[in-house]
C-alpha cells in the first residue's frame, strides 16, 4: 500500500455525477466546503482512452486545489488504489441527492 492514502470522491456538479480520485482531502477553512488536492488520473500509456476520464483530466488540468460544496458531496471512500475517473448523468431516483430542508424564512420575514 502506498504511503499516502487515495480517496474516491463522488460529487454532483451541474446535473452530472463526478467520480474522481485524490491523495488529499480535508475540511476547508471556507465554511461549507471540502478541499480536494492532488488529483490522480490513469496512465496515458493505455491504448484505450476513456472519454469520461479525459473530460475530467482536461477539466482539472492545472487545478492545484478544488473546493467542493459539502451539500454536493455524495460519498468519500478511502481506497487501496485509484481507478478510472468518470462522469455520469444524474438521472433516476437513485442518483439524485435531496437537499436538506429549508424553512424559507429569511431576515426580516414577519410571516
From TrEMBL:
Q: Which InterPro entries match?
A: DUF1820
Mind telling me which Pfam families this protein's record contains? DUF1820
Q: What is this protein called?
A: DUF1820 family protein
Q: Supply the source organism for this entry.
A: Gilvimarinus gilvus
Amino acid at each position: 500500500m502506498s504511503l499516502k492514502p487515495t480517496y474516491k470522491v463522488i460529487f454532483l456538479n451541474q446535473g452530472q455525477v463526478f467520480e474522481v480520485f485524490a491523495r488529499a482531502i480535508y475540511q476547508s477553512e471556507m465554511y461549507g466546503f471540502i478541499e480536494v488536492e492532488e488529483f490522480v488520473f490513469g496512465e496515458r500509456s493505455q491504448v484505450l482512452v476513456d472519454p469520461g476520464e479525459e473530460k475530467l483530466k482536461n477539466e482539472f488540468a492545472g487545478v492545484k486545489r478544488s473546493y467542493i460544496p459539502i451539500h454536493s458531496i455524495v460519498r468519500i471512500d478511502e481506497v487501496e488504489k485509484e481507478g478510472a475517473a468518470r462522469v455520469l448523468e444524474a438521472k433516476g431516483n437513485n442518483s439524485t441527492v435531496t437537499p436538506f430542508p429549508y424553512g424559507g424564512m429569511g431576515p426580516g420575514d414577519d410571516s
